[in-house]
Amino acid sequence: MAYVITGACITEKAADCVLVCPVDCIEEGEDQYFIDPDVCIDCGACVAACPVDAIYHEEDLLDEDLPFLEKAKSFYNIA
């Protein structure tokens, strides 16, 4: 995983990140958006565009955001 969308997206889902992604790697899930790590080019455009600061690089996640990493892995069937 490169970038992970965290809990703030669940209540917002503004989709600004989707609009700026140059490789269309952000997909809508049932309650939030997810970033496909196989397609993402780590450009960071989504981070700058997110109005609720919900997107973090995997290495920068806080402990309370780790469930969102697991949720993204599950969404993309990554072990």
From TrEMBL:
- The answer to keyword Electron transport applying to this record is yes
Which PROSITE patterns does this UniProt record tie to the protein? 4FE4S_FER_1, 4FE4S_FER_2
Q: Which cofactors does this gene product need?
A: [3Fe-4S] cluster; [4Fe-4S] cluster
**Where does the 4Fe-4S ferredoxin-type domain start and stop, copy by copy?**
31-60
Keywords, alphabetical: 4Fe-4S, Electron transport, Iron, Iron-sulfur, Metal-binding, Transport
Keyword Electron transport listed? The answer is: yes
Which Gene Ontology MF annotations are present? Answer: 4 iron, 4 sulfur cluster binding; electron transfer activity; metal ion binding
Q: Which domain of life is it from?
A: Bacteria
Biological function: Ferredoxins are iron-sulfur proteins that transfer electrons in a wide variety of metabolic reactions.
Which PANTHER family does the annotation name? FERREDOXIN, OXIDOREDUCTASE
**Per its record, how is this protein called by name?**
Ferredoxin
Q: Look up and give the organism this protein is from.
A: Sporosarcina pasteurii
Give the gene name. Answer: fdxA_2
